[in-house]
Amino acid sequence: MRRSPALRRIIPTIAVGALVLAACGSDDDSADTADDTTAPADTTGSTDASGDAGCSATIEDGVLTIATGEPAFFPWVLDDTPESGEGFEAAVAYAVAAEMGYEADAVTWTRTTFDEAIQPGAKSFDMNLQQYSITPERAENIDFSLPYFTANQAIVALEGSSAEGATTVAELKDVKFGAQVGTTSLDFITDVIQPTEDPFVYDDNVGAKAALEANQIDAAVFDLPTALYVSGVEIEGSTVTGQFPADAGGTTDQFGFVLEKDSPLTACVDAAITTLNDNGELDAITQEWLADFTGAPVITVE
Amino acid sequence: MSDRPSRRERYERARRRRSVVIATVSTIVVVAALVILIPLTPGWERVRQAFFDGDVFVDTFPGLLEAFWLDVQILLWSTPFILIVSLLVALARNTRSPALFPLRAFAVIYTDVLRGIPVILLVFLIGFGVPALGLSREWSNPLIWGSVTLVLSYSAYTAEIIRAGIDAVHESQRAGARSLGMTSSQTMRSIVLPQAFRKIVPPLMNTFVSLQKDVALVSLIGPVEILRQAGIDKATYANFTPYVAASLIFLALTIPCTRLADWALARQRARTGATTIA
């Protein structure tokens, strides 16, 4: 007997729930068909290099919404203000936007985490740049533009570290490494360096820096511009003890814009990057913002 | 008592049968609605790809299970320390001698401060902060300081549970023990604590389940346990299936523990209920 009053309370809840679900279902059916009709147009768009038709398909009419990290780090964005166009990625974003037909005042910035950018569903941005390495696995869920930068991996260590003075990967086997989760740097440690001890992994570069200072790791691996910044500005007494050639161990680390899967804008962004590559503007931007960030001794892999 | 069911019993049986039928039908309707309607949503195909990718699941599951072993280890070596520290803090708070006021004050501050700071912040503060004082490599190990953090934070919670258990033992029990000539520490040891612990088994189990999940916070300062491994796999595949797999692994540990806690609670209720009637 004790059960039925409770049950009587539950049944209306279930009925309401079922109705709500049914309502959602029918709504979504119409959206579904809309999706189906646009999908083929997208695929033809991305194979078409000119892609002008897609350039206007932004989430807000006439405005290009670009996302970056929170906070955005030097030298990619200066002073965490991408709106200034200062810093490598901020400059690239404005150059690409201009090629796509969006002048600086038609560009708005938003911030996302890595997770947000690969979440299924609608995006809060048209394109996202925060040193996303292009990988085939990631490309299954999101669109990547053509690369706008190729980064070498580099090692940062404190003075007296066992990583100091290494010129080959073999000399790095007994080093305790740290890196940021989800980065090519971490893959590089596990796949190419293959140290005897498992690397420690952190949410961000700050964690790796703290671990260096706390004597929990011997060395951290970053992409070269970040490594030079970290050693030069952020961690006293640290140096970039070496960099690896870009194609070391078959892992090239190329940064691309992230867009929603099958976004009509992808072809447009690609076309813009191709143009900037061809007319030398991308090289000029790289020189302007990253020239100080390319010198360090090279470590050979074999 | 006759064997023939009374009218009342027959009526109640009929009502029970009806309840079972209604519960069954409504469950079937709800499950069917979910199974049929969710796949009709426009985003379902993407959600399925991003969260329930069979290939990614198969690829990542063994690595996640291996990483989970580190969680279990941290859990196993932290738990005894948590119990010891929390018992000491609870006892310190229960001292009654005026001379021991500083001890009581310390216990209050300990529980207030360590319970008041989110575990995630404590992990960073202690895990990076203490080793940065200049400890040797073996003593700066994040596993040590991560575990110390868990012990500090969870012993503060557990101390409060134990204190509540001690307070719940009726004062007459102490009075009786003291009147028999027991010292106050004997009273505590053989009269109060045994009764207190019986009362707090369910909340202790609850805290243990909570600890099982918070162990993953140690990954924030370096060690690759299951949450971190899932994060690495997620980034590698740009797919959330490893998180679903990790959740399943956590559930395989936490559900038996919560069932056990429920069982302990039900048993206690039955026992105390029985004494009330008697």
Q: Which features does this protein show?
A:
heterodimer; A: 302 residues; D-Maltodextrin-Binding Protein, domain 2; 2 domains; 3-stranded parallel sheet; 10 strands; B: mainly alpha; MetI-like fold; 10 helices; 80% helix
Polypeptide structure, described:
The complex is a heterodimer of chains A (302) and B (278). Chain A is of the alpha/beta class and 302 residues long. Chain A has two domains: 52-149 and 255-292, Periplasmic binding protein-like II (D-Maltodextrin-Binding Protein, domain 2, 3-Layer(aba) Sandwich), CATH 3.40.190; 153-244, Periplasmic binding protein-like II (D-Maltodextrin-Binding Protein, domain 2, 3-Layer(aba) Sandwich). Chain A has nine helices and ten strands. Chain A has helices spanning 3-47, 88-100, 114-118, 136-139, 184-193, 205-213, 224-234, 266-278, 281-290; strands spanning 64-68, 107-111, 127-128, 142-151, 153-158, 177-180, 200-202, 219-223, 238-243, 253-260. A five-stranded mixed β-sheet of chain A has the order 7-6-8-5-9. A three-stranded parallel β-sheet of chain A has the order 2-1-3, with helices on one face. In chain A, α2 (88-100) links the parallel β1 and β2. The longest helix of chain A has 45 residues, at 3-47. Chain B has helices at residues 7-37, 44-51, 54-94, 101-116, 119-129, 142-168, 171-179, 184-214, 226-237, 241-277. The two termini of chain B are 22 Å apart. In chain B, α8 packs antiparallel against α10 (241-277). Chain B is 80% helix and 0% strand. By secondary structure, chain B is mainly α. Chain B has one domain (56-270): MetI-like fold (Orthogonal Bundle), CATH 1.10.3720.10. The radius of gyration of chain B is 26 Å and the shape is flat. Chains A and B meet through α1, α4, β7 and α6 of A and α1, α2, α5 and α9 of B.
